[in-house]
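Notes, p. 3: input format for complexes.
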Amino acid sequence: MTQSLSAQTRARRTNGSYPERTYRTGRRHVLDLDDFSVEEIEEVFQNTDAMREVMNRDIKKVPTLRGKTVITLFTEASTRTRVSFEQAGKIMSADVINVSGSGSSVEKGESLYNTALTLQAMNADIIVIRHSHSGAPHFLARNLDACVINAGDGTHAHPTQTLLDMYTMRERFGRVEGLKVVIVGDILYSRVARSNLWGLTRMGAEVTLCAPPTLIPQDMLNGISEMDGHPFASVKIERDVEKALDGADVVYALRLQLERQRAGHLPSLREYSRTYGINPERLELAKPGALIMHPGPMNEGVEIDPDVAHGTRSVIEEQVTNGVAIRMALLYGVATPVREQLFRAERV
Ligand code: CP
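Output follows (348 residues plus phosphoric acid mono(formamide)ester):
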């Protein structure tokens, strides 16, 4: 029997650790990566390998999710995540219905709870949600019978992005463990950075965060994460981008959220770009085979130079392609009962 989310939360509170679960125990929700074990992440990657094979076929269609309804509820802008979930569902023959904030009753002031109940009443099997409020997917998971997948909530988490990022690293290097991954940019407000910290540290990567101090969480600046036993104890903070990039296997540029400048975190975009932007000269400091990654959308000329973004080391478009396969694997994982998964994974 699957442990409920609230039971997991209770377990965490009781023993202070994060319970290890495996994919085969039958996950119903994907809310963040803090409750994914190494084995479960590997399982997702193996299923993603199978999905990549499906995507490379002439006829990209399998009946895996026939009869299932997937609703994407996006109340915040998205191109990559929303379209890739839609494509993932359609390749696996699910009925995919897209609901956005604009044009829906959200505009009339309907609460998230009532919108979600309405969608569930239409027999949705899976609700994929992007929302500006951190915790919105967790709220739905607690209150709905449908499976819930977090497609990005506020400044909190973006687990499917992290899985596709790590899958892309694994595809290029054959592993994630031991890679030196340097994440440069707006760490403070980035849900991508937060989920990447969970995923990359769990998988044994050496993570360095690089940003101006105004864009690094205060507890990290204070060294709280260096405490023994803290999940992020191995994470390094480096304010000097040249030092951070030295010997990197992966340079991961984050979108500079332009509203941060208005909030007074930065003197000017030009200064940020001059001090932290990833340009060809800086990329030379990384290892010769280093990859350049970005979750998108990019501000070219601010956090990343166009020659780097579209250069030979960039795997940004591969990230997008792998995003479809990862989301196929996750939809399949939550929608398919465990006993079925054990033999269906072979013939998806
Ligand atoms: N990386 C990402 O979440 O992109 P979108 O906002 O386009 O979905």
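Residues 1-24 have pLDDT under 50 and may be disordered.
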